[in-house]
């Protein structure tokens, strides 16, 4: 089927970032087409699963400040659609008290007046039962952090986009992109034209950017999403106000370990290592490295006495990492009407509403609401390959 309809904008990739971009464009009365290569909903990318952490606790001011508006935009979507997308649990941040990383979190939150509670070794177990705080570790709680219901959020924003007149075409893989004042996008099922194009293709970003002569320094990793069984059901339950948590570094690793209270699988707590092994997104399951699970087992045995230190369920997700773990939000260096969001590095879901707003602004040629210098491609210099 070939369509001769010309759109104001085409968005490629119906994960959280693309769906929010399309929704923001439709709110601005732009005729928008959202393309997705797989049948929706699916578990092939980075936006599936039932839960994600939402937090203001960050090492960098710019993320903490962006989250301020982001919380408001999530609430706005909840009101518009009449659904609950967020549950406040708090986020426990732990790490060596005098380490750079832990102090960056603490200082950034204090500087930005993020509501928080500092815990001490004396009162820790009173506030956070059934967790062992390592000797010398500091602990604080980002009070307004919590859990986003991810699958529900994605379905909701796509539904709102369609209510605003937006068109979603799934099971349409993009086969070619021809730049110009009007961009032409060819798919497995048709040809579409638009005044502007936004690419939010997650792990497939570079495969699509190759059509327009650009390659970014992105590494796709497969993440093992692990669920751990409670010895006594309800010990770490969301209903009992158990918080999400983030360990900045510990005895097992200098990388982040994070977790969410038991919710989607009754009696199972999600605890993951914030790094994986490189993979090809089209052959994700060929990557079978489980070395991260050994790290998590040792961590669970040391810090979570109420969990069986063997994962009960292991699922998969993909991260698309940039060298500095900051996002890519920019226009094509030669075609200003082609915009892309990429490299969300395993921490982008919570930012969906604000990323959508920013990519919408870029695609309309407007001055973005935030300083995008941390996210521009010029920071990579020699790492960006252009075939132009």
UniProtKB/TrEMBL annotation:
Keywords: FAD, Flavoprotein, Oxidoreductase. It is an enzyme of class 1 (oxidoreductase). The keyword Flavoprotein applies. The keyword Oxidoreductase applies. One of its GO terms (molecular function) is sarcosine oxidase activity. GO terms for biological process: L-lysine catabolic process to acetyl-CoA via L-pipecolate. It holds the Pfam family DAO. Residues 8-362 form the FAD dependent oxidoreductase domain. Transmembrane segments: none annotated. It comes from the Eukaryota. It catalyses: sarcosine + O2 + H2O = formaldehyde + glycine + H2O2; L-pipecolate + O2 = L-1-piperideine-6-carboxylate + H2O2 + H(+). InterPro entries: FAD-dep_OxRdtase, FAD/NAD-bd_sf, MTOX. Its cofactor is FAD. GO terms for cellular component: peroxisome. Its EC number is 1.5.3.1, 1.5.3.7. Belongs to the MSOX/MTOX family. Metabolizes sarcosine, L-pipecolic acid and L-proline. PANTHER family: PEROXISOMAL SARCOSINE OXIDASE. NCBIfam families: PRK11259.1 (NF008425). This is Peroxisomal sarcosine oxidase. It comes from Champsocephalus gunnari (Mackerel icefish).
């Amino acid at each position: 089927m070939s369509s001769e309809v010309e759109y104001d904008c085409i968005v490629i990739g119906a994960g959280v970032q693309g769906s929010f971009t399309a929704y923001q464009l439709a709110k601005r009365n732009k005729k928008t087409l959202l393309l997705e290569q797989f049948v929706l909903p699916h578990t092939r990318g980075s936006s599936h699963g039932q839960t994600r952490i939402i937090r203001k606790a960050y090492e960098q001011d710019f993320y903490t400040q962006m989250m301020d508006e982001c919380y408001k935009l999530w609430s706005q979507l909840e009101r518009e659609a009449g659904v609950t997308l967020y549950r406040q649990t708090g986020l426990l941040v732990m790490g060596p008290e005098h380490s750079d990383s832990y102090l960056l979190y603490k200082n950034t939150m204090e500087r930005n007046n993020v509501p928080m509670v500092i815990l001490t070794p004396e009162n820790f177990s009173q506030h956070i039962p059934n967790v062992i705080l390592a000797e010398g570790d500091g602990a604080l709680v980002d009070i307004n952090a919590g859990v986003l219901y991810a699958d529900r959020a994605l379905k909701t924003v796509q539904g709102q986009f369609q209510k605003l007149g937006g068109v979603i075409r799934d099971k349409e893989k993009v086969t070619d992109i021809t730049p110009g004042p009007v961009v032409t996008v060819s798919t497995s099922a048709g040809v579409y034209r638009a005044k502007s194009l936004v690419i939010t293709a997650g792990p497939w970003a570079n495969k699509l950017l190759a059509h327009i002569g650009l390659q970014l320094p992105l590494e796709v990793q497969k993440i093992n999403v692990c669920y751990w069984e409670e010895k006594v059901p309800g010990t770490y339950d969301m209903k009992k106000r158990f918080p999400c948590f983030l360990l900045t570094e510990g005895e097992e690793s200098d990388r982040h370990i994070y977790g969410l209270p038991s919710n989607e699988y009754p009696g199972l707590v999600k605890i993951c290592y914030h790094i994986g092994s490189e993979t090809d997104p089209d052959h994700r399951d060929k990557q079978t490295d489980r070395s991260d699970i050994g790290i998590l087992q040792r961590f669970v045995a040391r810090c979570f006495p109420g969990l069986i230190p063997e994962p009960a369920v292991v699922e998969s997700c993909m991260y698309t990492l940039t060298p500095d773990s900051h996002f890519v939000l920019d226009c094509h260096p030669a075609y200003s009407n082609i915009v892309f969001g990429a490299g969300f590095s395993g921490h982008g879901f919570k930012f969906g509403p604000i990323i959508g707003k920013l990519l919408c602004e870029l695609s309309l040629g407007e001055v973005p609401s935030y300083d995008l210098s941390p996210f521009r491609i010029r920071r990579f210099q020699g790492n960006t390959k252009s075939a132009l």
